Amino acid sequence: MTIADAAPGGTKGGIARDALKRAVERSQRRQAVTMLVLMAPSILFVAALFVLPIALFLFRSVDNGEIRHLLPQTVAAVPDWTAGELPGEPVYAALVEDLRTLKDTPGVGLLGRRLNYAVPGFRGLVTKTVRNLPATEVPSKKDALIAIDGKWAEPAILAVLRQQSGRLTDFYLLTALDLERTPADQLQRVSGEQAIFLDLYGRTLLISLGVTLLCLVIGFPVAAVMAAASPAVANLLLILVLVPFWTSLLVRSTAWVILLQNEGLVNKSLMALGLVDHPLPLVFNRTGVMVAMVHVLLPYMILPLYSVMKGISINHLRAAASLGASPPRVFRTVYLPLTMPGVAAGCTLVFILSVGFYVTPALVGGPRDQMIGYFIAYFTNSAVNWGLASALGALLLLLVALSYLVLGRLVGFDRLRVR
Amino acid sequence: MPARGHATGFERAARVALRVFAGLVLLYLVLPVFVVVPLSFTAGQLLVFPLPGWSLQWYRDFFTNPLWTGALLNSLSIGLIAMTLATTLGTLAALGLHGSRSRWKPLIFGLLITPLAVPVVIVAVAIFYYFASLALVGTYLGLVLAHTVLALPFVVVTVSATLQGFDPNLARAAASLGAAPTRAFWTVTLPIIAPGIVSGALFAFVCSFDEIVVALFLASPQQRTLPRQIFSGVSENISPTITAAAVVLLVVSVSLMATMELLRRRGERFRKQVATA
C-alpha cells in the first residue's frame, strides 16, 4: 500500500496520519536493513565457503573442460566424425597438432590420466605417441599414427575422443552407475572387476537399513523405560545416553577397535567364560562395523523416541486397560501408534546419518565393508579421479536429499532435531 | 512402560526383563566410551586387560612428544579461532533472524543450517577441491574457515533457541526508559541471552576440537590436529599413547558438553520461573 492510497484528501488529520505512517515505515525499513546487515556476514560466509564449493563439486561430476582445454583442435574436428567408425584424416591431423603443442608440458600427463579413466592403457599410448610424433610434412597423419601404435586404428579406443569432446560429459555419472558407452554410443553394463558401484550402493543401503533397524529394536525399549522412570532416574539415564552422544566419533570408533580385537576385552571375556575356544573375528569385518555404527547412532534414535514417549499421557493407557484391553493389546493399539512420530523421526535421523558414514567403517571395517563415503575419499586422495569422486558425491547427496524430502515430509521437518 | 493395575507374575517378570535389557543397552552405550580410560594408565606396552600395572608413562609421552603436543596445540588454537568466528557470525545472524520479519526468514535459517544436513565427507571433499584452487589446502586459515562453516549452524540454532525465550518487552522497556538500541542490547538483551551464546560457543569449540574428516583432507602434517593424529595412529598401529590422547579428547568434549547441558537446564528453569511469576 502506498502513502497516496492511505491519505484521504488534504485534511489535517490525514496529514498527521501520513507523517506517522511515514515515520513507522521508515523505522520498519531501518529495522529490516539492520537485521539484514546482521545476517549478511553469515549468509555470505556460508554462500562462499559451503554453497559455492558444493556447487563446484557437483559440477565437476559433469565437467569436461580438461579435454577441450588439452585437445582444442581435435575437439573442433570431431563433428564430421560418424559414431562407430574411424575418423577421417582431419581428426588425426588435428590430434597430431594438439599433441605437438602438448609435448614437453605437464598437459601430456593430464591428458593421459584423463583418457586412462575411460580406457585403461590410454596413458601409455599418449606418452608413446608424443615421444614419436610424425614430422609435419608426412602426407597421411592417420597412417603415421597407426604406424606408431596399432591402437590408433581401433574404433573402440578412438571413440573415447569423440564421446568425450563435449563441454559436459556423462562419463563420470555413468561410471558411478556401472555403465559405459560402446563405440556406437549404446549404453551397456560394465563387466567384471570394474563393476563395483552398484554393489557399493547396495552395501551402503544394506548397512544403513540394518543399523537403523537395530537402533530401533534396541533403542525403543530403552526410551520406553526412560519415559516411564521417575524424573530423577530418567535424568540419570538421560545423562548415560548423552555422554556417548557428546563423545567424539573417533574416540568411540577407536574404543571399538581396542575392544573387539583378538586380544580385546570382548574376546577375552568370551574365552574366560568358556563360550568360545578361539577369539572370534569381531573387528575389520561387518560385525565390527554394525556394532560400532549402532553404538554411534543409538542416541539419535533414543532421544527423539524418548521425547515423544515422555509426552504420552498414561491416562490413554489406563483408559484402554480399564476397557478390558490386555497389556499386549494396549501396547499394540494405543502405545505403539502414539510413539510413531518418534519412531519415524529417529529412523530418519539414523538412516540419513549412517548413509554418509566414512570414519567408523574406515577404522572398524574391512575392505568389503566400506560405504560410499570411503570411495569418495579414495577417489579424491589415492586414485585421483576427482570427476568420479564428484559423481559418487552427487549420487550420495541425491540419496540424502531424497531421504530428507520423503521422510522429512512424512515426519515433519521440525522433529528432525535431536535436542 | 505403562503402569498397570493388577500385574500378574508374568507381567512383572516382563517388566524386570525390560529394565535389565535397558540396563545392558546403557552399559553398551557407556562402557566403550570409558574403556580407554584405564587402558591409558597401563604399565604395559599392549592394550589388553588385565593391566600389568599402573603407570603414567603414556601421558608423559603424550605431553612431551612434540608430535602429540603439537597436535594438541593445533587443535586448541584452531578450535578457539573457529569458535570465535562461528560465535560472532552465528550470534549476529541469530539476532538478525530473530528481529527480521522478512518472508525469506525460513529460507535463510535453512541455508545457515544446511552444513549440518550434508554428509561431512561431501563437505570436506567439496571444500578440499575449492581450497585446492585457492591454495588454501594445508594452511591454518583453510582449516579454520572449514571448521567455522561446520560450527556455525550449532551457534545459530543454540542462540536462536535462546532468543525464542527472550521476552521482547524487556528490550521495549529499556527503549521506553530512553536507552538507545545499542545500549538496550548491551545492557539488557546480551546479558539475558549470554548463556545461550556461551552454549553455542562451547558447541562450536567441541565441533572443531573433535572434527576429523575435514582435518583429514585439509591439514598437512604441519596442521595435524589431535583427532587426525589419533586417526593415523589407529589405522597404523595402536600405541597406548593414543588412548592417553583419546582420554584428553574425551575429557575436554564431555566436560564442555556437560557445561552446556547445565546452562541449558538452568535456562529452562529460569524461563519456567519467569513464566510462572
CATH C-level class of chain B: Mainly Alpha
- CATH hierarchy: architecture of chain B: Orthogonal Bundle
Instruction: Supply the number of structural domains of chain B.
Output: 1
What is the overall silhouette of chain A?
A: extended
SSE class of chain B:
mainly alpha
Q: Could you name the ranges of chain B where pLDDT drops below 50 across 5 or more consecutive residues? A: 1-5
CATH superfamily of the largest domain in chain A: MetI-like
Strand order of the largest sheet of chain A: 1-2
| Average pLDDT number of chain B | 88
- In whole angstroms, how far apart are the ends of chain B? 34 Å
Label the structural class of chain A.
mainly alpha
| Integer tally of domains of chain A | 3
What portion of residues of chain B belong to β-strands?
Answer: under 5%
Helix proportion of chain B: over 70%
Q: CATH fold name of the largest domain in chain A, please?
A: MetI-like fold
Task: Characterize the biggest β-sheet of chain A.
Answer: 2 strands, antiparallel
Helix-strand string of chain A: HHHHHHHHHHEEHHHHHHHHHH
Quick check: average pLDDT of chain A?
Answer: 86
Structural commentary:
The complex is a heterodimer of chains A (419) and B (277). Chain A is an all-alpha fold and 419 residues long. Chain A folds into three domains: 3-60; 65-194, no CATH class; 197-415, MetI-like fold (Orthogonal Bundle). Chain A has helices spanning 3-6, 12-60, 65-70, 72-77, 89-102, 107-118, 122-131, 141-148, 155-163, 171-176, 197-228, 231-246, 249-260, 265-272, 286-310, 314-322, 327-355, 359-364, 372-381, 386-411; strands spanning 179-181, 187-189. In chain A, helix 15 (286-310) packs across helix 17 and helix 16 (314-322) packs antiparallel against helix 17. Chain B has one domain (72-276): MetI-like fold. Helix content of chain B is 78%, strand content 0%. Chain B has helices at 9-40, 57-64, 66-99, 105-117, 120-133, 140-164, 168-176, 181-209, 213-218, 226-235, 240-276. Classes of the chains: A mainly alpha (419), B mainly alpha (277). At the A-B interface, helix 2, helix 11, helix 12, helix 13 and helix 15 of A face helix 1, helix 3, helix 4, helix 5 and helix 6 of B.
